[in-house]
Amino acid sequence: MVVAAAVLQSQTADAQSCPTELTSLNVSAPFVVPGAAVSNPSLDCCNALQSVHHDCLCSTLRIASQLPSQCNIPPLTCAS
């Protein structure tokens, strides 16, 4: 029971820190915006990406990929 409570508390703390971690990725905007003149990520961008927990980033991408269906719009298809 104590282990389950510790895991739940850890997951809650991770969920609360995820928005802050994602905000740190704003330094990557010059690299990820389509048509951006910058072709390689900066050291700040790479460091910010490295500091984001894997689960936070994956959960965010999973949730974002579900938005079209939840908003009743056609699914997004992206070219390589």
Automatic annotation (TrEMBL):
Record key words, sorted: Secreted
Cellular compartment(s): Secreted
InterPro entries in UniProt: Bifun_inhib/LTP/seed_sf (IPR036312), Bifunc_inhib/LTP/seed_store (IPR016140)
Domain Bifunctional inhibitor/plant lipid transfer protein/seed storage helical: 18-78
Keyword Secreted: yes
Family the UniProt entry places it in: Belongs to the A9/FIL1 family.
Protein name, entry field: Bifunctional inhibitor/plant lipid transfer protein/seed storage helical domain-containing protein
Source taxonomy: Eukaryota, Viridiplantae, Streptophyta, Embryophyta, Tracheophyta
